[in-house]
From TrEMBL:
GO terms for biological process: aspartate family amino acid metabolic process. GO terms for molecular function: asparaginase activity. This is asparaginase. InterPro entries: AsnA_fam, Asp/glu_Ase-like_sf, Asparaginase/glutaminase-like, Asparaginase/glutaminase_AS1, Asparaginase/glutaminase_AS2, Asparaginase_C, L-asparaginase_C, L-asparaginase_I. Belongs to the asparaginase 1 family. CDD domains: L-asparaginase_I. NCBIfam families: asnASE_I. Substrate binds at residues 61, 92-93. SUPFAM superfamilies: Glutaminase/Asparaginase (SSF53774).
Length: 345
């Protein structure tokens, strides 16, 4: 694609990448996009058009919520035909949730949507933000010889690795390699050249129409098991008013206690129409409920296998499906198959 018809929309939501240190207090404060350009003069060297959209005021990623996701979907949808690709600057803490949500909300996506950010503000000498931003822009505009985008999906780019957004988890608050895609290979590695892992990238045979979705239902809980968990805790979660779904974080390959009261509580909740999805607490690996008796008993109770889903992906996928007002049976069925490459069945 020639520079003449290449363009990227840079969406700045907030986060560390766009912060500056207050000289008096030492606290990090949001600053605006013009200053970002001042700190990254290399942006001027791209030969194509870079336009910007800014959240006002910028959001700390801890405050990101479905309303902010809808806003991002609207911005991308409204500008979809005007740009080659999109880069979203986002705080790292909830980036994996946003990337997962967008992967479901942007149905039929055939252009790159790359989320990135940094562990150090862009004004700091040793910042990782500059490299992440410049490479993300390059990936968002990368096309094949036939003009098709190389990576037409929602991704996170961080510390030299491009990862599928709904496969990614933040696993480090200290180092530059903050994110990892444990159960799916990286889509590209950036060294001297950017090497694309074409086999792993989702490519649709034809140019789909983008179908943006805005309906999300947040009546969900995450329940993490631990040895000695009390019945009243399980009961309190499962009897939450309005609860429609639970992401159950189990041990190993999807195992849980075999106590009668525990299995009975889960069974009763499933009978009442609450969708319970079993994901593993392990960073890597998949839920195999047929493997051990403890997992098999969960399956008998009506619990859905989450396979190798991240918690972030399971949570946002449930919000997405519940937002469509599907029946519990339909939600269970759709949780068991990949909608955007989020699980390996």
């Amino acid at each position: 694609m020639s520079p003449d018809n290449t363009s990227v929309l840079l969406i700045y939501t907030g986060g560390t990448i766009g912060m500056i240190e207050n000289a008096e207090t030492g606290a990090l404060e949001n600053f605006n996009f013009e200053q970002l350009q001042k700190h990254v003069p290399e942006l001027q060297r791209f030969t194509f058009r870079i336009d910007t959209y800014q959240f006002d005021p910028p959001m700390d990623s801890s405050d990101m919520d479905p309303e902010a996701w809808r806003k991002l979907v609207r911005v991308i949808s409204d500008n979809y035909n005007r740009y080659t690709g999109f880069v979203i600057l986002h705080g790292t803490d909830t980036m994996a949730y946003t990337a997962s949500a967008l992967s479901f909300m942007l149905e039929g996506l055939s252009k790159p949507v790359i989320l990135t950010g940094s562990q150090l503000p862009i004004g700091v000498l040793r910042t990782d933000g500059k490299e992440n931003l410049l490479t993300s822009i390059e990936i968002a505009t990368a096309c094949r010889s036939n003009g098709q985008p190389i990576v037409p999906e929602v991704c996170i780019f961080f510390e030299n690795h491009l990862m599928r957004g709904n496969r990614t988890t933040k696993m480090n608050a200290e180092n530059f390699n903050a994110f990892r895609s444990f159960n799916y290979p990286v889509l590209a590695s950036a060294g001297i050249h950017i090497k694309y892992n074409n086999v792993q990238i989702q490519v649709h045979g034809n140019r789909n129409e983008l179908k943006p979705h805005y309906l999300l239902d947040t009546n969900i809980a995450v329940l993490k098991l631990f040895p000695g968990i009390q019945e009243n805790v399980i009961e309190a979660v499962l009897s939450t008013k309005g609860l429609k779904a639970v992401v159950l974080e189990t041990y190993g390959s999807g195992n849980a206690p075999r106590k009668t009261w525990f299995l009975q509580r889960l069974h009763d909740a499933c009978e009442q129409g609450i969708v319970i999805v079993n994901v593993t607490q392990c960073s890597s690996g998949t839920v195999e409920m047929e493997r051990y008796e403890t997992g098999y008993q969960l399956m008998q109770a009506g619990i859905v296998c989450g396979y190798d889903s991240t918690t972030e992906s399971a949570v946002t996928k449930l919000m997405f499906l519940l937002g469509h007002d599907y029946s519990p049976a339909k939600v269970r069925e759709l949780m068991s198959r990949p909608l955007a490459g989020e699980i390996t069945v």
